[in-house]
Design goal:
Helix 3 crosses helix 8 and helix 8 packs across helix 13. This protein is 62% helix and 2% strand. Strands 1-2 form a two-stranded parallel ribbon.
Length: 361
């Protein structure tokens, strides 16, 4: 893949990294009450939408009230997954010492186990972003997205497979989690069997299925079918949304990949540059940024995963200016542009390289 960025000298890379560190220190020095108020407000909004959504869904008597209840529950589940869950489990708010909004204890409302997710996402993915052979999130073990990945006949079906993954994204994330934890946990750290890791995932599945498809429907008595359907729709809408946002942040056609050899002697500045080249941003409204968990700013998140995500909007124009100074591509665009780009890449690399190259142009 041809890079859209100027190739920098070692001195330029280190200078780029130094200026980024200054931005980081400046933003970090101002993290405090404003950020705490933000996440508490979002958390309370999430809880309000869940409670009211479930109540309206429970007592709904017509399609309109059913849609309102399902919609509020969907908003709650998206906030739980994105702005609250994802960011809290990155440790962005651990400094608050909040009993629930801390990376150690928070458990999100999807079938993926939080501890397994933190291992493969926070550690493996964020350390080895887009490094072929190291970043298990690059294609999730079944989607080919680069010529560096060997083509197999099964890849011909990856466009269809991704369509189904979008509707069931939480299940894909959960299954991916226990497999990566098994593959990457060192023996000296008490590595377990694959079945033991799978059992953790299975336990979380039981809890989620019972809550959404047994407990709340039964509370509704004769209204159980509509509550079951409302929960199913809310989970499905959340899955479609999270799939779309996450894939836009990682797999657009201009998101670059790297080899393991390129990691040798990697400095902090090299790391920043790799995160810039391997990530993509989305442009939209403040509400859009909130509902995306601020993963609309995936570039900033990959560089500074522990800084409260609501600060990424503040970092973005400064980083963009820095990219212009060093002639580096700042991969950003509308949702339609970026999502179309993702599907173009998925479709292109479902074929052998000669065809893929023609599709990618």
């Amino acid at each position: 893949m041809n890079s859209l960025s100027k190739k920098l000298t070692k001195e330029e890379i280190e200078s780029f990294g130094k200026e980024l560190e200054e931005i980081r220190k400046d933003i970090q020095s101002r993290v405090g009450e404003e950020d705490a108020n933000h996440i508490l407000k979002v958390y309370n909004t999430m809880r309000y939408n869940e409670i009211m959504g479930r109540l309206i869904l429970h007592f709904s008597l017509d399609p309109i009230s059913f849609a309102i209840g399902t919609g509020m529950l969907t908003i709650s589940k998206i906030l739980n997954n994105m702005e609250v869950g994802h960011n809290v489990m990155h440790g962005q708010y651990d400094w608050m010492n909040h009993p629930e909004l801390n990376s150690r204890d928070f458990e999100w409302d999807i079938v993926s186990d939080s501890k397994q997710w933190k291992f493969y996402h926070n550690y493996i993915h964020h350390t080895f972003t887009n490094v072929i052979g190291k970043d298990h999130d690059f294609g999730y073990h079944f989607t080919r997205l680069s010529e560096e990945q060997a083509w197999k006949p099964v890849h011909l079906f990856q466009t269809v497979a991704n369509f189904f993954l979008a509707f069931n994204f939480e299940w894909g994330v959960g299954k991916h989690g226990y497999k990566v934890e098994f593959l990457e946990t060192p023996k000296k750290q008490g590595k377990k069997t694959l079945q033991e890791y799978k059992d953790v995932f299975s336990k979380k599945i039981e809890l989620q299925l019972f809550k959404d498809y047994v407990f709340f429907p039964l509370l509704s008595g004769f209204g159980a079918p509509k509550v079951f359907l409302g929960n199913l729709l809310a989970n499905t809408f959340r899955n479609l949304w999270t799939y779309s946002i996450i894939f836009c942040g990682h797999f657009t056609e201009n998101a670059e990949t790297f080899s393991e050899e390129e990691l040798e002697n990697e400095t902090k500045a090299d790391f920043y540059l790799r995160q810039l080249k391997g990530s993509s941003n989305l442009e939209g409204s403040k509400f859009f940024y909130l509902m995306s968990g601020h993963l609309s700013h995936q570039i900033e998140h990959h560089m500074f995963p522990d800084i409260p995500a609501n600060r990424y909007e503040e970092i973005a124009p400064r980083l963009k200016e820095l990219c212009e100074k060093y002639e580096q591509n700042y991969n950003s665009g509308s949702f339609v542009k970026q999502f179309s780009s993702v599907w173009k890449r998925i479709f292109a690399f479902s074929f052998p390289d000669p065809i893929a190259e023609k599709v990618m142009g």
